[in-house]
Amino acid sequence: MSRKQAIKNQVKEYMPKDWLSDIRIIYRITMEAVNDIKRTGFMNIIIITTMAAILSIFGALFRSTISMAQFAQELGSILEISAYLHPNAPAKEMADKFSRLDHVISVKVHPKEHGWKDLRKVIDLPNISNPLPDTLRIKVDDIEYIGSVIKSVKSDKRVESTNYPETLAKRLQLIIHVVNTTTIVVTLIVAMLTITIINNTIQLVIQSRKDEIEIMRLMGVSNWYIRIPFVMQGAFYGFAGAMIALIPLHFVQTLLGKMNQFFLIPNPLMAEGMVVLTLLLVGILFGALGSLLSIKKHLQV
């Protein structure tokens, strides 16, 4: 540690510390951020509007992603695995066994007598002996695990064969993967655009206050005292943009809610609140991050 730094630390130890001093510092930093926003002038409207447009797109896609995932999950939960048993296989015993498998939510026994009765209602058949096997109808909690469940069911030698809507299951899995990938890509794009906009804005503010910042440095003002107002300014832009983005997001959420009602699918639990909170956090965090990167690049403190 240098002698200069040691002296500075000693001085700090003897400086009076109380809650009033902390409040004054917070007030001054806040007013400094407010003054920086005022200095930006008309550019504030352009920045916040641009941020609102970007975050609106993110919010709409994010909310749509949740609804699509819910739709795929609800449709996937309807799919059943039909396990056809060998003659004289203990259906109830096997149902209990398969119900204990991971990701299996229910196993129903469909006796061959019921199957034969239902079939004769549809098709006029001669009076012959029942050729149908007992069937187990197995539901899985997540379509992603349907393959592993089928593999476990087939491993039991008392199961003659299995059947399930493979094509539909694969398409649902594809939808889920596309939805998840889209969410990640959109989040990255929003981060890049937001950080770039805030970075350029803070750069202009730093340039306009270059002489003032240099004087503050010569007076020994803390680096964080200089940095924090810029971070607060970036966070403000993100917050303001997110608040405006809530307006179009409300219409999107209402439309998706009506679509869910039309298809008799329940709205995702707490989806609206989660999307609003995520939008605000994304705006604030990315806005603050853009400011930090700009400070690191253009302000040597």
How much of the sequence lies in strands comes to: 5-15%
Major beta sheet, strand line-up:
2-3-1-4
Order of helices and strands: HHHEHEHEHEHHHH
Average pLDDT over all residues: 79
Count of distinct strands: 4
Layout of helices and strands, plus pairs?
Elements: H1 3-14, H2 19-40, H3 43-78, E1 80-85, H4 91-99, E2 104-110, H5 112-122, E3 135-140, H6 146-154, E4 159-163, H7 166-208, H8 210-218, H9 223-262, H10 271-298
Antiparallel strand pairs: 1-3, 1-4, 2-3
Helix pairs in contact: 2-9, 3-7, 3-9, 3-10, 7-9, 7-10, 9-10
Your description of this structure?
The protein is α+β, with helices and mostly antiparallel strands. It contains 10 helices and 4 strands. A 4-stranded antiparallel beta sheet has the order 2-3-1-4. The two termini are 18 Å apart.
What keyword list fits this structure?
4-stranded antiparallel β-sheet, Alpha-Beta Plaits, 2 domains
Task: Give a quick rundown of the structure.
The chain is an alpha+beta fold. Helices cover 73% and strands 8% of the residues.
